[in-house]
Design brief:
This protein has about 150 residues and is mostly helical. The protein contains six helices and no strands.
C-alpha cells in the first residue's frame, strides 16, 4: 500500500510540477483558459473527494473493530460519492466538448498554444484521476463482496 501511495505521489506530483512550469511560461493564457472551468463544480468535486477519502478510511477502522454493518454503510457512501464525482466529470467535460474547447478541436486551436496546453493538462489530469476513481470503485466492489461473504 505504501509503495502504491508513493508511486501515486510521484506521478501526480510530477504532473503538477510540469503543469507549474508551463503555467509559469504561459501565465496569461493559463489564467484566461482557467476561466472556462467551473469553480462550483471544482469545489463540489473537492468536497466529494475529501468526504469519500474519510468514509473509506473510516470503513477500514470499522472492519478492524468488527463492525461489518457500519463498514458496509461507509463503503456504500464512498461508492456513491465516487459515482457522483464521475457524474460531475461527465457534465463538466460534456460542457467543454459542446463548446468545442477540448484538445484537438479547431476552436481551441484558434485560441493559441497556452489555451491548448491548459486544456491538455486539464483533460489529461482530470481524466487520469477519473480513471483512478473507476479502478478504485472496482477494487472497492471486490472488497465489498468479500466483506459481505465474511472473507478476509
Amino acid at each position: 500500500m505504501w509503495l502504491f501511495l508513493f508511486t501515486e505521489m510521484l506521478l501526480f506530483g510530477g504532473l503538477f510540477v510540469v503543469y507549474s512550469v508551463y503555467r509559469f511560461r504561459n501565465n496569461i493564457a493559463f489564467h484566461l483558459a482557467a476561466e472556462e472551468l467551473s469553480v462550483f463544480i471544482g469545489t463540489i468535486n473537492t468536497i466529494i473527494l475529501l468526504i469519500s477519502s474519510a468514509t473509506i478510511a473510516m470503513s477500514i477502522t470499522a472492519i478492524q473493530k468488527k463492525n461489518k454493518k457500519f463498514a458496509l454503510l461507509l463503503i456504500g457512501i464512498t461508492i456513491f460519492l465516487g459515482l457522483a464525482f464521475l457524474l460531475n466529470k461527465y457534465f463538466e467535460w460534456g460542457g467543454h466538448i459542446r463548446e468545442h474547447i477540448y484538445p484537438g478541436s479547431s476552436v481551441l486551436a484558434l485560441r493559441g498554444q497556452g489555451d491548448v496546453l491548459f486544456m491538455v493538462f486539464t483533460f489529461f489530469m482530470t481524466g487520469l484521476h477519473a480513471l483512478h476513481i473507476i479502478i478504485g470503485l472496482a477494487f472497492i466492489g471486490v472488497i465489498t463482496a468479500k466483506i459481505i461473504r465474511n472473507k478476509n
